[in-house]
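**User:** Here is a favour to ask of a fellow structure person. Please take any protein you like and set down a full record of it. No explanation is needed for now; the record alone will do.

**Assistant:**
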Amino acid sequence: HAYDRVGGGVTGDLGPRRGWPVPPVLVAWMAAAVAILVGVTWATSAGLLTWAMAVDAREAARDFVSRYAIAAYAGYVALFVVMALALFPAQLWIIVFGAMVFGFWPALTVSWAAALLSSVAVFLAARGALAGKYRAKAGRYLARVEQEFQRDQFSWMLAMRFVPIVPYFVSNVAPAFLGARLPPFMVAAGI
């Protein structure tokens, strides 16, 4: 930039435009969150959504689980796996839903199994049919850890699972692209 001696300001081109200051995906998520918040607020103020309705829905879900336990657990695991394969970051909410419907200990057990199964499914998909999509999504993370990952794969796989800034899908996709073997990956995912 050239300094304008007469006016005291900066003149000339300000350089290349770097894109949005906020990622478009974050803007979309924020807009969706605001829309949901506005919708729920409107529905509760209009009497279309009440606490009693939520309690009734929970009881109906628990009744379904008591009648059709195998179908309920299978559906829960299938939902968990599909969300993971779609790289949709909703696993936390699915786990909370599971705890409300199944109870704490059964939900803990089935959520652990669903998380392990979904991790393996994403790992295998990253090596197969969905490799291109997943590589495009995880590419910037892969470049950062590739050399260190090759030195100590298992520690890196564990660290990616326990460090909260690493997106869930990256902890499943990165090992597949960086050459991890499936058995150590399954152990790390199980822990």
Observations:
- Strands lie at 2-3, 10-11.
- The two ends are 53 Å apart (CA to CA).
- The longest helix spans residues 104-126.
